[in-house]
Amino acid sequence: MLGLAPPRARVRLGFRYDLPDPPDTAAAAEIAGHAMAILARQRIRTAILVGYGPGSLVTPVTDALRAAAASARLTLREVLRAEDDRYWSYLCKDPACCPAEGMPYDPMAHPAAAALATAGLVAYPDREALARTLAPLQGKIAESMRQATERALGRVAVLIGEQRRSGRGGDLLRLVAEDGRRAVSAAIQVYRDGGQLASDDQLAWLSVTLADLRVRDDAWARMDPDHHEAHRRLWTDVVRRACPPYVPAPASLLAFTAWQAGEGTLANIAIERALDADPDYSMALLLGDMLDAGLPPSEARLPMTPEEVAESYAQREPGS
Protein backbone atom coordinates (compact mmCIF):
# COMPACT_ATOMS: atom_id res chain seq x y z
CA MET A 1 0.00 0.00 0.00
CA LEU A 2 1.39 3.39 -1.06
CA GLY A 3 -0.20 6.46 0.50
CA LEU A 4 -0.14 9.56 -1.72
CA ALA A 5 -0.31 13.19 -0.62
CA PRO A 6 0.00 16.66 -2.16
CA PRO A 7 1.81 18.19 -3.87
CA ARG A 8 1.72 16.19 -7.10
CA ALA A 9 0.43 13.06 -5.35
CA ARG A 10 3.86 12.13 -4.02
CA VAL A 11 4.34 8.91 -2.06
CA ARG A 12 4.15 9.85 1.61
CA LEU A 13 4.32 6.41 3.15
CA GLY A 14 4.35 2.76 2.19
CA PHE A 15 3.70 -0.45 4.08
CA ARG A 16 3.05 -4.11 3.34
CA TYR A 17 1.29 -7.22 4.61
CA ASP A 18 1.85 -10.93 4.15
CA LEU A 19 -0.96 -12.49 2.15
CA PRO A 20 -3.01 -15.02 4.15
CA ASP A 21 -2.19 -18.46 2.80
CA PRO A 22 -4.60 -20.19 2.54
CA PRO A 23 -7.03 -17.30 1.95
CA ASP A 24 -8.81 -16.21 5.11
CA THR A 25 -11.76 -13.79 5.09
CA ALA A 26 -11.22 -12.67 8.68
CA ALA A 27 -7.51 -12.07 8.12
CA ALA A 28 -8.23 -10.08 4.96
CA ALA A 29 -10.74 -7.93 6.85
CA GLU A 30 -8.19 -7.36 9.63
CA ILE A 31 -5.60 -6.25 7.07
CA ALA A 32 -8.07 -3.87 5.47
CA GLY A 33 -9.10 -2.36 8.80
CA HIS A 34 -5.50 -1.86 9.89
CA ALA A 35 -4.54 -0.27 6.56
CA MET A 36 -7.45 2.17 6.67
CA ALA A 37 -6.56 3.14 10.25
CA ILE A 38 -2.96 3.93 9.26
CA LEU A 39 -4.00 5.99 6.26
CA ALA A 40 -6.61 7.87 8.25
CA ARG A 41 -4.12 8.64 11.01
CA GLN A 42 -1.77 10.15 8.42
CA ARG A 43 -4.69 11.93 6.71
CA ILE A 44 -4.04 10.14 3.45
CA ARG A 45 -6.96 10.32 1.02
CA THR A 46 -5.40 8.66 -2.06
CA ALA A 47 -3.50 5.38 -2.33
CA ILE A 48 -2.13 2.76 -4.71
CA LEU A 49 -2.43 -0.94 -3.92
CA VAL A 50 -0.22 -3.68 -5.36
CA GLY A 51 -0.59 -7.37 -4.52
CA TYR A 52 2.20 -9.79 -5.38
CA GLY A 53 1.34 -13.41 -6.05
CA PRO A 54 -1.37 -15.60 -7.55
CA GLY A 55 -4.88 -14.26 -7.89
CA SER A 56 -6.20 -16.86 -5.46
CA LEU A 57 -4.23 -15.17 -2.65
CA VAL A 58 -4.17 -11.56 -3.83
CA THR A 59 -7.80 -11.06 -4.86
CA PRO A 60 -9.45 -11.78 -1.46
CA VAL A 61 -7.23 -9.17 0.20
CA THR A 62 -7.64 -6.57 -2.55
CA ASP A 63 -11.42 -7.10 -2.46
CA ALA A 64 -11.42 -6.43 1.30
CA LEU A 65 -9.21 -3.36 0.87
CA ARG A 66 -11.32 -1.96 -1.96
CA ALA A 67 -14.49 -2.35 0.08
CA ALA A 68 -12.86 -0.73 3.11
CA ALA A 69 -11.51 2.10 0.96
CA ALA A 70 -14.97 2.80 -0.45
CA SER A 71 -16.44 2.97 3.07
CA ALA A 72 -13.61 5.27 4.19
CA ARG A 73 -13.94 7.47 1.07
CA LEU A 74 -10.34 6.70 0.19
CA THR A 75 -9.51 7.01 -3.51
CA LEU A 76 -7.57 4.06 -4.91
CA ARG A 77 -5.73 5.48 -7.92
CA GLU A 78 -4.67 2.01 -9.01
CA VAL A 79 -5.03 -1.58 -7.79
CA LEU A 80 -2.63 -4.07 -9.33
CA ARG A 81 -1.63 -7.72 -9.07
CA ALA A 82 1.91 -8.70 -10.05
CA GLU A 83 3.21 -12.20 -10.70
CA ASP A 84 6.02 -13.69 -12.81
CA ASP A 85 7.10 -10.27 -14.18
CA ARG A 86 3.59 -9.41 -15.38
CA TYR A 87 0.95 -7.20 -13.84
CA TRP A 88 -2.83 -6.92 -14.09
CA SER A 89 -5.08 -4.02 -13.11
CA TYR A 90 -8.25 -4.57 -11.09
CA LEU A 91 -9.50 -1.15 -12.23
CA CYS A 92 -8.54 -0.81 -15.91
CA LYS A 93 -10.64 -2.74 -18.43
CA ASP A 94 -8.92 -1.46 -21.58
CA PRO A 95 -7.17 -4.42 -23.28
CA ALA A 96 -4.88 -2.00 -25.11
CA CYS A 97 -3.00 -1.16 -21.90
CA CYS A 98 -4.13 -3.99 -19.64
CA PRO A 99 -4.39 -7.18 -21.73
CA ALA A 100 -5.93 -10.31 -20.28
CA GLU A 101 -2.57 -12.11 -20.31
CA GLY A 102 -1.02 -9.33 -18.23
CA MET A 103 1.46 -6.58 -19.05
CA PRO A 104 5.12 -7.69 -18.95
CA TYR A 105 7.60 -5.60 -16.99
CA ASP A 106 11.21 -5.83 -15.81
CA PRO A 107 11.46 -4.66 -12.18
CA MET A 108 15.26 -4.40 -12.27
CA ALA A 109 15.32 -2.32 -15.48
CA HIS A 110 12.53 0.08 -14.53
CA PRO A 111 13.41 3.79 -14.06
CA ALA A 112 12.30 3.42 -10.43
CA ALA A 113 15.13 0.92 -9.87
CA ALA A 114 17.61 3.42 -11.33
CA ALA A 115 16.24 6.13 -9.03
CA LEU A 116 16.71 3.83 -6.03
CA ALA A 117 20.29 3.09 -7.08
CA THR A 118 21.00 6.81 -7.42
CA ALA A 119 19.66 7.31 -3.90
CA GLY A 120 22.00 4.61 -2.61
CA LEU A 121 19.27 1.97 -2.30
CA VAL A 122 18.97 -1.41 -3.99
CA ALA A 123 15.92 -2.81 -5.76
CA TYR A 124 15.64 -6.42 -4.56
CA PRO A 125 13.42 -8.88 -6.46
CA ASP A 126 11.52 -9.89 -3.30
CA ARG A 127 11.48 -9.70 0.50
CA GLU A 128 13.41 -12.94 0.85
CA ALA A 129 16.32 -11.49 -1.13
CA LEU A 130 16.43 -8.50 1.21
CA ALA A 131 16.23 -10.78 4.26
CA ARG A 132 19.28 -12.68 3.03
CA THR A 133 21.34 -9.49 3.37
CA LEU A 134 20.87 -9.85 7.16
CA ALA A 135 21.29 -13.61 7.35
CA PRO A 136 23.94 -14.78 9.84
CA LEU A 137 27.24 -15.69 8.25
CA GLN A 138 28.17 -19.35 8.45
CA GLY A 139 31.20 -21.65 8.32
CA LYS A 140 34.66 -20.38 9.15
CA ILE A 141 33.41 -16.83 9.69
CA ALA A 142 30.90 -17.98 12.31
CA GLU A 143 33.55 -20.04 14.09
CA SER A 144 35.97 -17.11 14.07
CA MET A 145 33.30 -14.86 15.58
CA ARG A 146 32.52 -17.47 18.24
CA GLN A 147 36.15 -17.47 19.29
CA ALA A 148 36.30 -13.66 19.16
CA THR A 149 33.19 -13.49 21.35
CA GLU A 150 34.82 -15.77 23.91
CA ARG A 151 37.82 -13.40 23.94
CA ALA A 152 35.47 -10.45 24.38
CA LEU A 153 33.84 -12.13 27.37
CA GLY A 154 37.32 -12.76 28.77
CA ARG A 155 38.01 -9.05 28.37
CA VAL A 156 34.83 -8.30 30.34
CA ALA A 157 36.13 -10.52 33.15
CA VAL A 158 39.47 -8.65 33.14
CA LEU A 159 37.74 -5.25 33.39
CA ILE A 160 35.56 -6.48 36.25
CA GLY A 161 38.69 -7.72 38.02
CA GLU A 162 40.37 -4.34 37.54
CA GLN A 163 37.39 -2.57 39.02
CA ARG A 164 37.34 -4.86 42.04
CA ARG A 165 41.06 -4.39 42.65
CA SER A 166 40.68 -0.61 42.40
CA GLY A 167 38.27 -0.70 45.32
CA ARG A 168 35.66 1.24 43.37
CA GLY A 169 33.05 -1.49 43.87
CA GLY A 170 29.52 -0.55 42.92
CA ASP A 171 28.47 -1.49 39.42
CA LEU A 172 30.94 -4.15 38.30
CA LEU A 173 30.16 -3.52 34.64
CA ARG A 174 30.89 0.21 34.77
CA LEU A 175 34.33 -0.11 33.15
CA VAL A 176 32.84 -2.41 30.51
CA ALA A 177 30.19 0.20 29.69
CA GLU A 178 32.77 2.99 29.52
CA ASP A 179 34.96 0.93 27.17
CA GLY A 180 31.90 -0.07 25.14
CA ARG A 181 30.80 3.53 24.66
CA ARG A 182 34.26 4.44 23.39
CA ALA A 183 34.19 1.47 21.00
CA VAL A 184 30.75 2.48 19.71
CA SER A 185 31.80 6.07 19.11
CA ALA A 186 34.96 4.97 17.30
CA ALA A 187 33.11 2.43 15.14
CA ILE A 188 30.48 4.97 14.11
CA GLN A 189 33.20 7.39 13.04
CA VAL A 190 34.97 4.69 11.02
CA TYR A 191 31.81 3.96 9.05
CA ARG A 192 30.92 7.62 8.61
CA ASP A 193 34.37 8.07 7.10
CA GLY A 194 33.58 5.32 4.60
CA GLY A 195 35.57 2.60 6.36
CA GLN A 196 34.65 -0.77 7.82
CA LEU A 197 35.64 -2.85 10.84
CA ALA A 198 37.65 -5.78 9.51
CA SER A 199 38.57 -7.33 12.86
CA ASP A 200 36.32 -9.99 14.36
CA ASP A 201 37.57 -8.92 17.79
CA GLN A 202 36.29 -5.38 17.22
CA LEU A 203 32.92 -6.62 16.00
CA ALA A 204 32.63 -9.14 18.84
CA TRP A 205 33.47 -6.48 21.44
CA LEU A 206 30.79 -4.20 20.02
CA SER A 207 28.19 -6.97 20.09
CA VAL A 208 29.04 -7.99 23.67
CA THR A 209 29.16 -4.47 25.11
CA LEU A 210 25.94 -3.44 23.33
CA ALA A 211 24.17 -5.95 25.58
CA ASP A 212 24.63 -3.30 28.30
CA LEU A 213 21.74 -0.85 27.91
CA ARG A 214 24.04 2.08 28.67
CA VAL A 215 26.12 1.24 25.62
CA ARG A 216 23.13 0.48 23.41
CA ASP A 217 21.36 3.71 24.37
CA ASP A 218 24.55 5.70 23.79
CA ALA A 219 24.69 4.21 20.28
CA TRP A 220 20.98 4.92 19.78
CA ALA A 221 21.53 8.58 20.70
CA ARG A 222 24.25 8.83 18.02
CA MET A 223 22.03 7.68 15.14
CA ASP A 224 21.98 11.01 13.30
CA PRO A 225 19.70 10.46 10.26
CA ASP A 226 22.12 12.40 8.06
CA HIS A 227 24.45 9.38 8.34
CA HIS A 228 21.86 6.61 8.03
CA GLU A 229 23.69 4.84 5.20
CA ALA A 230 26.90 4.56 7.25
CA HIS A 231 24.93 3.38 10.28
CA ARG A 232 23.09 0.79 8.19
CA ARG A 233 26.40 -0.66 7.02
CA LEU A 234 27.78 -0.75 10.57
CA TRP A 235 24.83 -2.48 12.20
CA THR A 236 24.41 -4.89 9.27
CA ASP A 237 28.02 -6.01 9.74
CA VAL A 238 27.48 -6.52 13.48
CA VAL A 239 24.11 -8.28 13.08
CA ARG A 240 25.43 -10.74 10.51
CA ARG A 241 28.49 -11.68 12.55
CA ALA A 242 27.23 -11.49 16.14
CA CYS A 243 26.65 -14.70 18.07
CA PRO A 244 22.90 -15.24 18.63
CA PRO A 245 22.68 -13.95 22.25
CA TYR A 246 24.19 -10.63 21.15
CA VAL A 247 22.01 -9.99 18.08
CA PRO A 248 19.06 -8.07 19.65
CA ALA A 249 20.79 -4.74 20.35
CA PRO A 250 22.54 -4.21 16.97
CA ALA A 251 19.47 -5.56 15.14
CA SER A 252 17.26 -3.03 16.94
CA LEU A 253 19.70 -0.23 16.13
CA LEU A 254 19.65 -1.34 12.50
CA ALA A 255 15.84 -1.30 12.57
CA PHE A 256 15.86 2.25 13.91
CA THR A 257 18.25 3.61 11.30
CA ALA A 258 16.39 1.75 8.52
CA TRP A 259 13.17 3.37 9.70
CA GLN A 260 14.89 6.78 9.64
CA ALA A 261 15.78 6.13 5.97
CA GLY A 262 12.25 5.06 5.06
CA GLU A 263 13.30 1.42 4.59
CA GLY A 264 10.36 -0.10 6.45
CA THR A 265 10.81 -3.62 5.11
CA LEU A 266 14.46 -3.72 6.18
CA ALA A 267 13.44 -2.34 9.58
CA ASN A 268 10.87 -5.11 10.03
CA ILE A 269 13.35 -7.80 9.01
CA ALA A 270 15.85 -6.43 11.53
CA ILE A 271 13.17 -6.47 14.23
CA GLU A 272 12.45 -10.11 13.37
CA ARG A 273 16.16 -10.92 13.79
CA ALA A 274 16.15 -9.24 17.20
CA LEU A 275 13.00 -11.00 18.41
CA ASP A 276 14.11 -14.38 17.09
CA ALA A 277 17.06 -14.07 19.50
CA ASP A 278 15.04 -12.55 22.37
CA PRO A 279 11.22 -12.45 22.02
CA ASP A 280 10.98 -9.98 24.93
CA TYR A 281 13.62 -7.48 23.80
CA SER A 282 11.96 -4.16 24.63
CA MET A 283 13.56 -1.90 22.03
CA ALA A 284 12.60 -4.27 19.21
CA LEU A 285 9.04 -4.55 20.53
CA LEU A 286 8.77 -0.75 20.80
CA LEU A 287 10.02 -0.21 17.26
CA GLY A 288 7.70 -2.94 15.99
CA ASP A 289 4.70 -1.17 17.55
CA MET A 290 5.74 2.13 15.95
CA LEU A 291 6.12 0.57 12.51
CA ASP A 292 2.84 -1.32 12.86
CA ALA A 293 1.17 2.00 13.62
CA GLY A 294 2.45 3.35 10.31
CA LEU A 295 4.48 6.16 11.86
CA PRO A 296 6.56 7.94 9.19
CA PRO A 297 10.37 8.20 9.27
CA SER A 298 10.04 11.78 10.56
CA GLU A 299 8.94 10.24 13.88
CA ALA A 300 12.22 8.27 14.19
CA ARG A 301 13.72 10.85 16.51
CA LEU A 302 16.78 10.40 18.69
CA PRO A 303 15.74 9.63 22.30
CA MET A 304 18.40 11.88 23.88
CA THR A 305 21.89 13.19 23.27
CA PRO A 306 24.78 10.90 24.29
CA GLU A 307 25.50 13.28 27.17
CA GLU A 308 21.89 13.07 28.37
CA VAL A 309 22.00 9.28 28.14
CA ALA A 310 25.16 9.17 30.26
CA GLU A 311 23.65 11.55 32.81
CA SER A 312 20.41 9.58 33.04
CA TYR A 313 22.31 6.41 33.88
CA ALA A 314 24.67 8.20 36.27
CA GLN A 315 21.67 9.34 38.29
CA ARG A 316 20.56 5.72 38.74
CA GLU A 317 23.91 4.49 40.05
CA PRO A 318 24.36 4.08 43.82
CA GLY A 319 25.94 7.07 45.52
CA SER A 320 25.32 9.43 42.60
Please outline the helices and strands.
Elements: E1 2-5, E2 10-14, H1 25-41, E3 46-52, H2 55-71, E4 75-83, E5 86-89, E6 103-104, H3 111-118, H4 127-132, H5 139-166, H6 174-192, H7 200-209, H8 213-221, H9 228-241, H10 248-260, H11 264-277, H12 282-292, H13 306-314
What does this structure look like?
- With 320 residues, the protein is of the alpha+beta class.
- The protein folds into 2 domains: 104 residues, Cytidine Deaminase, domain 2, CATH 3.40.140; 176 residues, no CATH class.
- The chain is built from 13 helices and 6 strands.
- It has a 6-stranded mixed sheet, covered by helices on one side.
- Strand 4 and strand 5 form a beta hairpin.
- It is elongated, with a radius of gyration of 23 Å.
- The termini are far apart.
